[in-house]
Write a structure and sequence with these properties.
The protein is α/β, with parallel strands linked by helices. The protein has eight helices and five strands. Strands 2-3-1-4-5 form a five-stranded parallel β-sheet, sandwiched between helices. Helix 3 (about 55-65) runs parallel beside helix 7 (about 125-150) and helix 6 packs across helix 7 (about 125-150). The N and C termini lie close together (about 5 Å).
Length: about 180
């Protein structure tokens, strides 16, 4: 099977779904965000918790990445090599624009629903989650445009499937992906 790439803006359900699909299909899951978080340790960051990207250290690291693209480029090269080997499921913001011959899904959801999910996931007030989502969206779009001229979140032409996760529960999204994948060669 070709590698499967899931992308989308923060708090849209990428990792949750990717992990479940990887488990059901006995594939290895690679999280671009988790790998990048591990790489941040080279710069002296201490990482902990799933909400690290949404807190001060994660946001500071994002600001550093805006000035130095080396780490993002290293991550993307690593993920490109994994994607080419096939039989992997990868969550990544940039990979869909950088590789061919993969099955590419874009998950979408409104700002409000994503903030609600982040609020519940990270146990933070909704208004705080809303501001974090807005800032991350803006910074990620700027970063990936500057590195690769990608219109992250706006240009969905590279995706095979776009799924609105807003009104679907996790099991429904898993069922949709498994059904699509069942019929692909």
């Amino acid at each position: 099977m070709r590698s499967i790439i899931i992308s989308g803006l923060p708090a849209v359900g990428k990792t949750t779904i990717a992990m479940a699909i990887a488990d059901k299909l006995a594939l290895k899951h690679y999280s671009g965000g988790d790998i990048l978080k591990e790489m941040s340790k080279e710069y002296g960051y201490v990482t902990s918790g799933n909400d690290w990207w949404d807190r001060d250290h994660g946001m500071k690291f994002l600001e550093e990445r805006m000035k130095n693209y080396d780490m993002d480029k290293r991550l993307d090269e690593y993920l490109i090599n994994i994607a080419r080997r096939r039989d992997a499921i990868i969550t990544s913001y940039t990979l869909p624009w950088l590789v061919e011959d993969c099955i590419k899904f874009w998950f979408k959801g409104s700002l409000e629903i994503r903030a609600k999910r982040m609020s519940m996931r990270d146990n933070i007030p909704y208004n705080e989650a809303l501001e974090i989502i807005k800032k991350r969206d803006q910074k990620n779009k700027e970063l990936y445009f500057n590195i690769y001229n990608i219109r992250f979140g706006d240009d969905l032409s590279v995706f095979d499937y776009v799924i609105n996760t807003e009104e679907l529960n996790v099991n429904s999204v898993i069922d949709i992906l498994l059904t699509i994948l069942k019929y692909l060669k």
